[in-house]
Specification:
The complex is a heterodimer of chains A (327) and B (286).
Chain A lengths: L3 H27 L5 H8 L5 H11 L5 H14 L12 H36 L4 H14 L3 H15 L20 H35 L2 H8 L4 H23 L1 H14 L5 H9 L5 H29 L10
Helix pairs in contact in A: 1-13, 5-6, 5-8, 5-10, 5-11, 5-13, 6-8, 7-8, 7-11, 8-10, 8-11, 9-10, 10-13, 11-12, 12-13
Chain B lengths: L25 E5 L6 H9 L13 E2 L2 E2 L2 H7 L4 E4 L12 H5 L3 H10 L16 H13 L5 E5 L7 H16 L3 E6 L2 H7 L2 E6 L2 E7 L12 H9 L33 H5 L5 E3 L2 E3 L6
Parallel strand pairs in B: 1-6, 1-7, 4-5, 5-6
Antiparallel strand pairs in B: 2-3, 7-8, 8-10, 9-10
The chains are: A mainly alpha (327), B alpha/beta (286).
Chain lengths: 327, 286
């Protein structure tokens, strides 16, 4: 297993990263051409200058930027992430509810692409340079070049509109109270967005796994395994899959950023009430700065945790990456 | 393999090769790069790639060595000594790669002076000298009757190379046949019983190692040229180069470079014949 020292270093690195992200996103949000004041005047036509002055004071707009940043950071650390201006609820509550929905979507897409991508990669490598490999590889290259939002629209048009197999977006049937929604209904609503989201990383993972496994098959240690009389199945399971797992694990856990980015598209297209859709709304129309910054910080943690797991698992699989192992 | 563009053609990398190894002897297969040494090793183990075309036959203790027999013998009676640490899976502890039976591993490691605990190491944690001995243990785990060592010495200091050769002599003394594949003719002369000189995939000559004491004892012009190229014998390189497998001459493969070449050498490849106790493929050998 990964040793304590390297995990501590990863976590320290993660903390400095989060600090940098917080500073950068705060500066960018402050530099936005739409100030809270213009935003307030736009959404409240005819508001008096006196009230605007009160809002400025309430929001602390006239304080120096450094003080505002430190005040915000202090809140983040104490778990007070502010109030969402569009939901009128604490930012953390909004993120919590939204993330639960997103997590179901992202994890099912992630598991789909992981299991099927790795299997397809192994399939191609076993049949390398023969026709099954050529066909699947072409399909993967084709899938790689399709943008997420486009395939989402195609899925909607074909499976929801034309064939009617799946609902037209949302996470549950409209008009049904949340406690009455069955698991089956939830899954039914989840399938199309999850497929959309897994589309890109599936092909990516399959192609990378194929290359790595083909390299393993061409390696000296597989040659020696054959010379020792190991059969094809044993070579695949004992040497092939384990060695091909290394890049697959790094890719899958390192793809949390792409997963989150993709969920913004998938959730927007399918009107799926997740964190990605909330981020898109907070960053564009609603100009909900507290929620937006909160989502930035939260998603940074999410991506960082993915990378941390990738590092720990790589060390667990590959002895060469372990520091301080006995020489 | 691929030629110009995508046209595929067949390369005749080994032809007219006739060698045998006996129990208890070290047969060195010596030749320059591209003479077909490693392919010969892979053919003997039956692990040539699927697109290889194999003609002719191999025999194992009198029985024809076909795919089914290969499958039974590989890793047990016929074993390969790996060249380097790259022949071990980097993710598996060395002990488990040598044998599933920990007693066998312990016995072999003790015999080759590897400390207890070595079996728990991963391949990248082995030192150069340990790697060498682990490789030999890997080959011996199945109790082989034939050990094939493919270039076991490159990268070793002369001292370590001598040490490795002593291990092979021990294996041969234990009753197994050893095929030592090498481009180091000097090493072959000092440690092998017989030497097969490979040239462009054909056995130019199979001679006792002692015949390399004097060029007059050798039979083939190429062996004589090799002898003359050894530092202690004048260090003279023969003119020309070994032909590429795709452009072999019609007759004797050595004819274009041969000082004793006669018209009949150009017509057809010479058949191997016995001359003074050795095997030679040359029309003019006597």
């Amino acid at each position: 297993m990964a040793n304590l020292k390297s995990v501590t270093i990863y976590i320290l690195r993660g903390l400095t990263l989060l600090l940098a992200v917080s500073l950068l996103s705060f500066v960018l949000a402050s530099a936005s051409p739409i100030s809270p004041e213009t935003r307030y005047r736009l959404s409240h036509p005819g508001v008096s200058d006196e009230n605007v002055e009160k809002m400025r004071e309430y929001w602390g707009i006239d304080e120096p930027p450094a003080e505002r940043y430190l005040g915000w950071l202090d809140g983040i650390l104490r778990g007070e992430w502010g109030t969402s201006t569009s939901y009128r609820q604490p930012v953390l509550d909004v993120i919590g509810v939204r993330f639960k929905a997103s997590l179901a979507l992202m994890m099912s897409a992630w598991a789909l692409s992981g299991i099927f991508g790795f299997s397809a990669g192994c399939f191609m490598a076993v049949f390398r340079d023969r026709w099954p490999d050529r066909i699947v590889r072409r399909i993967c290259l084709f899938m790689c070049s399709i943008p997420t939002f486009w395939i989402g629209l195609v899925f909607l048009a074909v499976f929801a509109a034309a064939l009617g197999w799946f609902p037209f977006g949302l996470a549950a049937p409209p008009g049904v109270p949340p406690e009455a929604v069955t698991l089956g209904q939830r899954i039914h609503h989840l399938i199309l967005p999850a497929l959309t989201l897994s589309f890109l990383s599936f092909a990516n993972l399959a192609l990378h796994t194929r290359e790595k496994l083909a390299d393993v098959y061409a390696s000296d240690y597989v040659l020696f395994a054959r010379a020792r009389g190991e059969g094809e199945a044993r070579i695949l399971f004992r040497h092939g899959i384990r060695n091909a797992m290394i890049p697959a694990v790094v890719m899958q856990f390192g793809s949390f950023a792409e997963l989150f980015g993709g969920s913004v598209f998938a959730e927007t297209i399918f009107s799926y009430p997740g964190l990605g859709a909330a981020a898109a709304a907070a960053g564009t129309g609603a100009s909900d700065i507290p929620l937006f910054l909160g989502i930035v910080m939260f998603s940074s943690c999410f991506v960082f945790i993915g990378n941390l797991i990738a590092n720990i698992l790589t060390q667990a699989i590959d002895p060469r990456t372990r520091e301080g192992a006995a020489a | 393999m691929y030629g110009k563009g995508f046209s595929q053609h067949l390369l005749k990398t080994i032809s007219n090769l006739n060698i045998g190894v006996r129990e208890g002897e070290i047969l060195a297969v010596a030749g320059s790069s591209g003479s077909g040494k490693s392919l010969l090793a892979h053919a003997a183990l039956g692990i040539l790639p699927k697109n290889a075309v194999i003609e002719g036959g191999m025999a194992w203790r009198g029985a024809p060595l076909d795919a089914a027999l290969h499958k039974r013998l590989r890793g047990r009676e016929i074993a390969l000594v790996p060249q380097s640490v790259a022949y071990l899976d980097p993710l598996i502890r060395v002990g488990r790669q040598i044998s599933n039976d920990s007693q066998t591993v312990g016995r072999l490691f003790a015999r080759y002076h590897l400390k207890p605990g070595t079996e728990k190491l991963f391949p990248h944690e082995l030192s150069g000298g340990m790697t060498r001995r682990v490789m030999i243990c890997a080959a011996l785990a199945g109790g082989p009757k034939l050990v094939i060592a493919d270039e076991p010495t490159p990268g070793l200091t002369p001292h370590l190379a001598e040490h490795a050769m002593r291990h092979f002599r021990e294996i041969a003394d234990g009753g197994a046949g050893v095929i030592l594949i090498t481009h180091d003719i000097d090493l072959a002369v000092r440690h092998a019983d017989r030497i097969a000189v490979l040239y462009a995939g054909t056995a130019a000559e199979v001679a006792d190692a002692s015949d390399f004491a004097d060029a007059a004892l050798l039979r083939h012009p190429y062996s004589k040229a090799l002898w003359a190229a050894m530092p202690q014998n004048g260090f003279v390189a023969a003119a020309g180069a070994q032909p590429y497998a795709g452009e072999l001459p019609p007759g004797c493969l050595y004819a274009p470079r041969c000082p004793e070449c006669s018209p009949e050498c150009m017509a057809a490849p010479p058949q191997p014949r016995s001359v003074r106790g050795g095997e030679v493929s040359c029309c003019n050998a006597h």
